[in-house]
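pasting for ref. prot 1 ->
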Amino acid sequence: MARFHQKHFSATKLVALFCFASVLSLALLAVTFFASIASDWIVHKSPLLLIPNLTSSTTNSIGRDAKKIVPERFLSATFADLDAPDLNWEEMPAAPVPRLDGSSIQINNLFYVFAGYGSLDYVHSHVDIYDFRTNTWVERLDMPKDMAHSHLGVATDGRYIYVVSGQYGPQCRGPIASVFVLDTETKKWSNLPSLPSPRYAPATQLWRGRLHVMGGSKENRHTPGLDHWSLAVKDGRALEKQWRTETPIPRGGPHRACIVVNDRLFVIGGQEGDFMAKPGSPIFKCSRRHEVVYDDVYMLDEEMKWKVLPPMPKPNSHIECAWVIVNNSIVITGGTTEKHPVTKRMILVGEVFQFHLDSMTWSVIGKLPYRVKTTLAGFWDGWLYFTSGQRDRGPDNPQPRKVIGDMWRTKLSLH
């Protein structure tokens, strides 16, 4: 009887150990899964490619020159940076605050940097102004209290800055339809008629006397919008009471560059889908959703029909204010590209792209000091500047991490 009891006890122990191991395995799988949902910043171990290091001159706030060594880049061989020449970058005075998903407009030597996230739980409600002539941050302006804080659409006529729609508040709160105008001479704000519907990060530009707004994400922050509206404006005022419906854009979505040059309107890159608010969350906590980043380029000309142009060298999003116009070409700095094919993590872009308007072709003209998205770019006296955004985790990890206010410049010679 005692022997029978011992056998029964051993079997019970084995069953218990098996059950414990099974539960532990399931728990580990669950942790891995939810970590995947919660973060785009997990390191993936795989074969590495070596990209040579970058040496650049750095100028500090008191003018002394120094050499800044950017470490060699190691990146998973399954998803590498594009080959690109080195550029000599100088570090300039950082923005007063770090910002992600902010916006910017350049008017002559002044660079207006709007709003954005300070962190996922904090948003800015002011404008910082940088003077390219003196390379200093010279002024701060408060925004209207009911103006959106990120994912704005912005455009200018050289004096008035039009600020369209966007997300109000931190995390993944909802968009608003309001439209504001800043008179950069008087520093006064005014209102225009609201959009027909709220949008996140719509492509926005002034063209032929009309303010054009298209694409972006709809109210749930994820569904791409195809709508294209325009409003006649002059000297910061609306000439019409309501927005006019235009030809829908062929592909919707947020985070695209929208540029007018040579009397043509270009819409470049972007994505379909975005993070959404977690259902029932009282703080509208961001929850990851499927996204598709694309390389599409579209153009409107005098026929008012969308034309498809050669695609970007790689899919690229988060570039709405990352562009400048130089020598009949469009230059774009940084962004985000398709998810890593193995880890499914967000991958930042570290290249500088040039779109040649005479030949309608693309080239890769250089590397940034690091990979970074939602850069705010300007060009002055031969210098390409960029500031702010969210940079990579280091040379060997292209996933996003730190929100920055850094300002960099490089002398750009394009033919």
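and prot 2 ->
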Amino acid sequence: MATPAMQSPAGELISGSSRPHVMFIPSAGMGHLLPFFRVITALATRDDVDVSVVTVLPTVSAAEADHLAGLFSAFPTVRSVDLHLLPFDASEFPGHDPFVLRWESLRRSVHLLGPLISGASPRVSAIVTDVTLTSHVVPIARELGVQCHVLFVSCATMLSLLAYVPVHLSKKAEPGPGVGDVDIPGVQRLPQSYLPQWLLDLNKLFTKQFIDNGREIINADGFLVNTFDALEPVALAALRNGKVIAGFPPVYAIGPLQSQTSATEPDGKQEHTGSPVAWLDEQPARSVVYVAFGNRSAVGRDQLREIAAGLEASGCRFLWVLKTTTVDRDDTAELTDVLGEGFLERVRGRGMVTKAWVDQEAVLRHPSVGLFLSHSGWNSVTEAATAGVPLLAWPRLGDHRVNATVVVSGGVGVWMEHWSWDGEDRLVTGEEIGEKVKEVMSDATVRARAARTSEEAAKAIAEGGTSYRSLQEFIGKLKATQD
């Protein structure tokens, strides 16, 4: 397969530069791409760093394609390097999540990156890779003599789990089918029920990827993590002090990451008349429950009906971004069919339901929003922490329960630990949902803790703050490669 030369958007070859050239290698899924976009745009607004992005084609979702197009349109100095994946037979892994399959497809095509990196002009100073590709990209970078950093898109607590699981497995007295409870040195003991469901089966594709990456991360040059010291002081200290793994690479807590511009949002649809933000403008302060379960957390139909019943019973105003499929291109269901006849009419005026893309940062910053009912994906947690909106955590899959522990310890919100997730034994009833929503909406203590966390987030990214200094330290390390 031919490897394209590094080119600018206009097509001309890029000449040499004394600035460090950072090549970003993101993975699939908006939960992974958004943190990359935010770091990329933060560097692209500087005049002392060159940036290129490996664009993996084809994209999985329409949202990915739209946001990538928006990124390159808004920042023409950021260069796209296309990586066309090799053919991949997904039937080898029946029933797997399409994003996990994409990660595997990427891993099998990742050797194509070698020529892209070595042939780039200006010379690549450093790579920033997604953690899902660590076990393959770090060895390539080491062979080419290029720094390789990992942008970790979850919390520092999850990073400590990833780093420690291979050691944990080597110490297990009884092999067993799953990972079991994990006691992470210097951090906390995580019951098996908190872990990603896939880790309950060591033969699962995701589990093998997870363990492979966990073994290799010790060889990375550093970790960029979308968190801040006041949010996860224990986990960050344990990683930095070598309590989790001796000799662990530097950890740069640079969060909470924020969008530099709305230009990467597709079409600016949220600004149109009748849009979610326009609807929020008409609502009283702190009166709206924002409900969203992420870009790849499809909720079952029966549970969706219970959520609808709970929101209706709560009596609260609500904005619900509804998703019925894992991949947005497959989502063709009509709202009436999903939510039941008459629901939209009964809540007209105090409730809005949409399947459109929503600028979540703008929604959470809106003064009418008083609560966020969320899957506790890490981007959502940090965005809620930044906005000071209490988060009611209802984990759905993956790292969400680990994240929920930070929601509680970091003062972001509350976690209904007994609420089940997909594949478990019961539905959470509309009555439970409605009662909890009303309770948290009126809890002044929860609101006050969320407000304090927001203040700490603002301090972290302000000039001289902990995250500001971490980013400057990382950029200094990049520049040192040019000396």
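The CA atoms of residues 134 and 217 lie 7 Å apart.
The longest strand covers residues 50-57.
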